[in-house]
Design a protein that fits this description.
The complex is a heterodimer of chains A (113) and B (112).
Chain A lengths: L4 E3 L2 E4 L5 E6 L6 E7 L6 E7 L2 E5 L7 E4 L6 E5 L8 E8 L7 E2 L3 E5 L1
Parallel strand pairs in A: 2-11
Antiparallel strand pairs in A: 1-3, 3-8, 4-5, 4-9, 5-6, 7-8, 9-10, 9-11
Chain B lengths: L2 E5 L2 E5 L4 E8 L6 E6 L4 E7 L5 E4 L2 E6 L4 E6 L8 E8 L7 E3 L3 E6 L1
Classes of the chains: A mainly beta (113), B mainly beta (112).
Chain lengths: 113, 112
């Protein structure tokens, strides 16, 4: 399968723990996006990379959140000191050159107890 | 700030019915509008509408864009249970077109 992959698919953690999610984009895609989706809402933009450079971060991305994309390939999203409000689906998408041609991964569903 | 509003929020129909989903948007610098279908996981692309492509059709699904009135509709004819999903509408945000702004989605349930 050459689509966008995300790991893990599900994560249950206790409040206060740190979690890290991984996204592997489609190999030739230079752009990578992270979104968060809660129940009954559409995806909300978190951050965006062009190659290895993080070009934009949403106000939603508090200082507990950090994302990296070393070498412009896979990306990781880390949440430190998780809170119950962090429970959501975290979606990764990648595209080549334009924002409209995004392909989404299956998401990582996080539950913070 | 860019804004995308979808209606209805949810809809239940019987197989064979025709449905119309609505998306209105407020952007000062329009470039495109996209429709996605989301089942249990990743949104999958359906249509992209632009100033030069205001009508799209694929099988039982079709979509039109009204740039003057700032809305789009997604039509599904002869609905099937497999059409049950969340339908999302999105526009690229106007500042640099670097990200998509999504509506809340319409949850469609097609009963047999």
């Amino acid at each position: 399968d050459t689509g966008v992959s995300q790991n893990p698919r599900h994560k249950i953690t206790k409040r206060g723990q740190n979690v890290t999610f991984r996204c592997d984009p489609i190999s030739e895609h230079n752009r990578l996006y992270w979104y968060r989706q809660t129940l009954g809402q559409g995806p909300e933009f978190l951050t965006y990379f062009q190659n290895e450079a993080q070009l934009e971060k949403s106000r939603l991305l508090s200082d507990r959140f950090s994302a990296e994309r070393p070498k412009g390939s896979f990306s990781t999203l880390e949440i430190q000191r998780t809170e119950q409000g962090d429970s959501a689906m975290y979606l990764c998408a990648s595209s080549f050159m334009t924002v409209e041609t995004q392909y989404f991964g299956p998401g990582t569903r996080l539950l913070v107890l | 700030e860019d804004k995308v509003v979808q209606s209805p929020l949810s809809l239940v129909v019987h197989e064979g019915d025709t449905v119309t989903l609505n998306c209105s948007y407020e952007v000062t610098n329009f470039r495109s509008l996209l429709w996605y279908k989301q089942e249990k996981k990743a949104p999958t692309f359906l249509f992209m509408l632009t100033s030069s492509g205001i009508e799209k059709k694929s099988g039982r699904l079709s979509s039109i864009l009204d740039k003057k009135e700032l809305f789009s509709i997604l039509n599904i004819t002869a609905t099937q249970t497999g059409d049950s999903a969340i339908y999302l509408c999105a526009v690229p945000e106007e500042t640099g077109f670097q990200k998509l702004v999504f509506g809340t989605g319409t949850r469609l349930l097609v009963s047999p």
